[in-house]
Amino acid sequence: MLELRPNCECCDKDLPPDAPDAMICTFECTWCRDCAENVLLGVCPNCQGGFAPRPIRPAAALERHPASTVRVLAQDCGARA
User: Fold this and answer.
1) Rounded to an integer, what distance in angstroms lies between the CA atom of residue 36 and that of residue 24?
2) Interatomic CA distance for residues 44 and 13, integer angstroms
């Protein structure tokens, strides 16, 4: 089950479970579309893989399987720009 992390690991933008611009890699690293495309240039700094749009979990499923509240920030994301 996806964690649905609450923020972009680069710019710390809030990414609620229904955010249409949330992107993930195969390890669920979470980024906003702007950072994924323009800062990270399509390559996850953690796994070196690409990104895919994060699925939106239906509201009814969120009741049983809530999104994560743990914020994660990459230490050197801004240095990649």
Assistant:
1) 9
2) 17
